[in-house]
Design a protein that fits this description.
By secondary structure, the chain is an alpha+beta fold. Helices cover about 60% and strands about 15% of the residues. The strands form two sheets. The chain has a five-stranded antiparallel sheet, with no helix packed on it. It has a two-stranded antiparallel ribbon with strand order 6-7.
Length: about 325
């Protein structure tokens, strides 16, 4: 079908008019600060928008955009957005100012706390030096025979050491460290109880070994009581158990005894070290601690000892308990 030229001309005119309108159409972008940008959105991603405007192609962060529309924004809309932006900036600056003020106050509080702690520490050091000077003066008077320590006031490291030699942990109580003294006392008590139990088990193993040796000796004197294979087996079994099971029990006792002795000597060495530091004014003891009020008490009791294998009672065993009166 042939279209008349007049209709074809009319159609071309409409087509070019539509193209012109499409080229003129653009988006209006209102930023959070109240300004606007007119242009075409080329692309976007989750965080930004690429816009082509009269000033060129630019990428805007979505956090900077308040609104997008196809008609121009009114002055009232721009002023409203501008006022909201100014208010948000003012609120942000106020929050920053409050945060800085809080940080300054916290720093000032920390400084005051540090100064107070330093003053307390200096006062404690001064008191420790005064106590050490008094102890040194009393030692000199005692050497000259002009002082008799009737109230038991500590004047040297030995006054603390002999307490710990007599009762583990007591010297630390006396010097003003009850927590350390409690740890030493409880540890030594636990090691002593373990050593006693290991000794009891070792003695039982030695007695059993002696019984087996006596049995084998009697069988060797009276061979009619058992044949040769039985006697050989019993002798081999007794010797093997003596060098493995019984010897292991004895070794456990020796190891527990070494551990008890080592820990006992360690706590004595520790109180001597603290005592020497106390003599030189280097040991700081809190005022609130009153070592004279702490009194350790040992409680001992004999209870029947039951053999777990046979269920029979085989003598008695010693139970130890440590308590503190204050």
């Amino acid at each position: 079908m042939i279209v008349p030229f007049s209709q074809l001309k009319w159609r071309f005119s409409v087509f070019f008019m539509i193209l012109s309108l499409e080229g003129l159409a653009s988006e209006e972008i209102l930023l959070v600060n109240g300004t606007t940008i007119s242009g075409r959105i080329l692309s976007q991603d989750p965080g930004s928008v690429k816009v082509s405007s009269a000033s060129g192609v630019q990428t805007l962060a979505k956090s900077q955009i308040s609104r997008i529309q196809y008609v121009k924004f009114t002055e009232a809309q721009k002023q409203t957005q501008r006022a909201a932006y100014i208010q948000a900036v003012a609120a942000y600056r106020e929050r920053i100012q409050r945060l800085r003020q809080a940080q300054m106050e916290a720093a000032e509080q920390r400084r005051k706390i540090q100064e107070a702690e330093a003053a307390i520490q200096e006062e404690k050091q001064k008191e420790a030096r005064e106590v050490a000077d008094r102890a040194a003066a009393l030692r000199d008077l005692k050497e000259e025979g002009k002082f008799e320590n009737r109230i038991g006031e500590p004047i040297s490291y030995w006054d603390f050491a002999w307490h710990s030699l007599l009762l583990p942990g007591w010297g630390h109580f006396y010097i003003g460290k009850p927590v350390v003294g409690s740890l030493y006392a409880l540890s030594v008590a636990g090691l002593a109880g373990n050593t006693y139990e290991r000794r009891r088990v070792a003695l039982r193993a030695v007695n059993e070994n002696h019984h087996q040796v006596e049995r084998n000796f009697l069988l060797s004197l009276q061979p009619d009581l058992a044949d040769l294979n039985t006697r050989i087996f019993l002798s081999y079994y007794a010797n093997a158990k003596a060098f493995t099971h019984y010897q292991g029990k004895v070794n456990d006792y020796h190891n527990s005894l070494y551990a008890l002795q080592s820990f006992y000597l360690f706590q004595v060495a520790h109180i001597i070290y603290n005592g020497i530091a106390w003599e030189n004014g280097l040991l700081i003891v809190d005022k609130d601690t009153e070592p004279a009020r702490w009194q350790p008490e040992w409680q001992m009791a004999l209870v029947p000892d039951q053999n777990p294998t046979t269920g029979r009672f085989e003598g008695q065993k010693l139970n130890l308990a440590l308590g503190f009166r204050f």
